[in-house]
Structure formats: C-alpha cells, structure tokens
Amino acid sequence: MKSFFNVQDIGDLDKALAEAREVKANPFAWKHLGENKTIILVFFNSSLRTRLSSQKAALNLGLDPIVLNVNGDSWKLETRMGVVMDSDKSEHLREAIPVIGSYCDLIGVRSFAGLTDREYDYAETVLKQFVEYSGKPVISLESATVHPCQAFADLITIDQYKTVKRPKVVLTWAPHPKALPQAVPNSFAQWMNAADVDFVITHPHGYELDPAFAGDAKVEYDQMKALEGADFVYAKNWSCPGVTDPSKYGQILSQDMGWTIDEAHMAVTNNAYFMHCLPVRRNMIVSDGVIDSERSIVIPEAANRVVSAQVVMKRMLESLK
Ligand code: AN0
Ligand code: CP
Asked: What is the rounded CA–CA span in Å between residue 261 and residue 283?
C-alpha cells in the first residue's frame, strides 16, 4: 500500500476486516516486519487517540515511532507556495518534507482543514505535498477532508458488534460550539457506502456533505425519522461543507440542541449502539445518559484505532519489501 487516504486504498473490505480480526487476536505476530524501520508522525493539530494508537500500532509491529509536534517543538512551517516568508513561519514544507522523508520509512500526517478556503482544503494541499516531496508512503491521520484510520476503526467496530448481516447505520449531525472539519463524516460516509450496511445520513439543511464522499447515500432531513430502527447511531458535528453555498464554507449554520442525541432519540432506534469518534462534548453532542449507557461503544471504538492503524502500517511495511 503506497498511501492511505480513501477506502479504495485498503481494497477489498471483507479481506481488510478479516486481517483486522487477525491483528486484534494476535497483535505481536508481525513484530519482525518493522525491524530497523521508522515511522514519523507529524502533528499540526492536537490529538489524544491518533497520537497514542498510531504509536502503539507501530510498537506492536516492531516499528520505531517518532512524533513531531509542528508548532510545538519544531519550526513553524509555511504550507502555501509562492509566498514571501515574512511571517512567523521559519521553514517551508518544501524543505521540511524531504528532510523528514530522509529520516524514516513511513509518514503519518495530521493536518486539519483551515475551514476558510474550500478549494485549498478540498485539494488536500498539505497532504499532497507530503506524498510528492517525501518519497515515502503517507497515512492521513486526519487531513483536510478525510480521517481514514477513524473510519476503518468504525467499520471494524460495527463488524464486531453487529447482530444482523446488514445493519442500519445512521450518521447524525449534532450541535457543537466550535466550527469543526468535515473529515470524520466524509470518511465515515465513504466507508459506509462501500460497506454492506443500510446507510442513512441526517443533518439540518445546508450541511450536505460533498458528493465525492456522500455518494448515493440516503439523506433524511427529519432526524427522528432517520433514527427509526437504527442498529448503530454515529453522532458527529461538522461545519458547513459549502456544497450548496460555497460562501458559507466552514460556518456554523445551526446550534439546535434538539439534535443532541438523548434517550428520546435512542428510544426510536432498534436498541442501537451509540458511536462517536471522540473527543466528544457531553450534553452538546450526546446526553450523559446515552454515552454512559451500556449501549455506548465509544471506548471499544477508540480501542479499535490501534487495530486499524496496525493493519495499514502492516500492509505498508509488507509492500516496502
Ligand atoms: C476534530 C474534528 O472534528 O475533526 C477531531 C476529531 C477526531 N474534533 C475537534 O476538533 C473537537
Ligand atoms: N478520534 C480521534 O482522532 O481522536 P484524536 O483527535 O484525539 O486523535
């Protein structure tokens, strides 16, 4: 595997899920694969799960992880081309990336959407520079438009908990005080469209996801109707994707607390499991009662982040040989 951004990069999903089950059952069986190899994990933004699960996955494979916190302990990096570098950014990605590439075998990059310039974000400008200038396989650890390690872990979790062959999975928007990227819902939609599930998206008007990710997924604007009979409820906030009105890209269009997932919402489902990628704001996205209930699987979902990262790194190491 050369890079990991989209569901297509993992190939056949049944095979990927079978491999995930193997890795989960026997995490140290491929400890030789990463011997004398290094992964550099570059973080332009905060993280708890991605940072720790990526390091743990690397260690399970015998691969040495090095973490670089850009803005914290490195020079601030300029990401735009052709600018006069008279700001607080001391170094350009154009030099930093090949230098990073010369120190490692694999690279992971977290670089969130700026949410001001839709074209810049949706072109995955930063991630593409890493691919072009590092010469190494690159994993998106949530880039401007995708979070594939999360979506793969979500699929692994659904596969683990489902009790019917084709469960109903509902992605629901929920309110949040800050504008958030679309990477998590974009990837979740892309992966659910490719998986064997009955997938429905629900959100207020104006929050339509980019068709490149939403595909033919059913959109139901009545949240309660969407949730009826759901086996899995996947809550997430996102800001305006700017599909219908590009001038609203990255804005908060609604803070309707009626969309917070509480017991009344869960009551219309098929005793659904509750999922969220975390970090989650309690009593904004989800009520204490729902996230603390026995149907909440947010912790095993987060635990599966080690499994998804490990399958991806394992495949990349195998294709280096
Ligand atoms: C980020 C987001 O919504 O994309 C990361 C989620 C994994 N969340 C926040 O910034 C709160
Ligand atoms: N879900 C997730 O990616 O969490 P972090 O932002 O803490 O890495």
From this structure: 8
* Residue of 183, 212, 215 lying closest to 199 (CA atoms): 215
Q: Each residue of 197-241: pLDDT tens digit?
A: 999 999 999 999 999 999 999 999 999 999 999 999 999 999 999
User: Cα separation of 200 and 169, whole Å?
Assistant: 6
- Tell me the Cα Rg of the chain: 19
Look up residue 246 and give its two tokens.
């590009």
Angle between helices 49-60 and 148-161 (to 10 degrees): 80
pLDDT tens-place string over residues 131-163 = 999 999 999 999 999 999 999 999 999 999 999
SS3 call for 64: strand
Alpha carbons 157 and 304: distance in angstroms, whole number: 7
* CA of 48, nearest ligand number: 2
Q: Give the integer Cα–Cα distance in Å for 283 and 111.
A: 28
Q: Does ligand 1 come within 6 angstroms of the Cβ of 185?
A: no
Q: Which of 171, 277, 308 to mutate to test the pocket of ligand 1 (most atoms within 8 A of CB)?
A: 277
Nearest to 136 by CA among 40, 262, 24: 40
Contact predicate 67/43, CB 8 Å: yes
| Alpha-carbon span 5 to 55, nearest angstrom | 19
Query: Taking the CA of residue 301 as centre, how many other CA atoms within 13 Å lie in the half-sphere pointing to its CB?
Result: 21
Token duo for residue 28: 């140290």
Q: Tell me how far apart the alpha carbons of residues 249 and 263 are, in angstroms, rounded to a whole number.
A: 32
Is there a contact between 40 and 100 (Cβ–Cβ < 8 Å)? yes
> How many angstroms is it from 182 CA to the middle of ligand 1?
9
Nearest partner of 94 among 134, 136, 122, 124, judged by Cα: 134
Q: Are 170 and 209 in contact (CB under 8 A)?
A: no
Which ligand 2 atom is nearest residue 302's CA? 1
Q: How many CA atoms lie within 13 Å of 156's alpha carbon, on the beta-carbon side?
A: 31
Residue 229 in contact with residue 269, Cβ under 8 Å? Answer: yes
